[in-house]
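To make this tangible, we now present a fold written out as tokens:
***
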Amino acid sequence: MTGYPMQAMERSVMLIVNGVACHVDASSEASLLHVLRNDLGLNGPKYGCGLGQCGACTVLVDGVAARACVIPAAGVAGRAITTLEGLGNRDRLHPVQQAFIQEQAAQCGYCLNGMIMMTASLLRHTPHPTETQVRQALSGNLCRCGTHVEIVRAALKAAELLVQQQGEK
């Protein structure tokens, strides 16, 4: 024993991010958020608290909202990870993204990643939520600017847009 802290081992991890298989060399301690932002250049998920309490880093893992700052990247190897960039694109926004724009549900925008991803997860599992269900689902996501009213309105609007979109198919 040399008295120096042990170095975390680096290893290749295969992640499926936004439908694309990605191989990254990551420390065994590297968080999913760190890998997404620093290795893959995806800036949708934000670093907020680093403790999984604010929601800024929310991504979908197999369709379920998860806090990327507290998940080891190696722990989600081979699972489907969706970031804000993977929901929609410039030509065709995801209905949740579209609703947040229509309802002007942003002020500084720092919380938006988490609010949008949590809303997408909620609507995937509860396509017709009540306002109470929306508020409950988003209660763990912090917004410092106080745009909660607009955010809730956007989540309910997104549910309407998804129903319309499904009716068109």
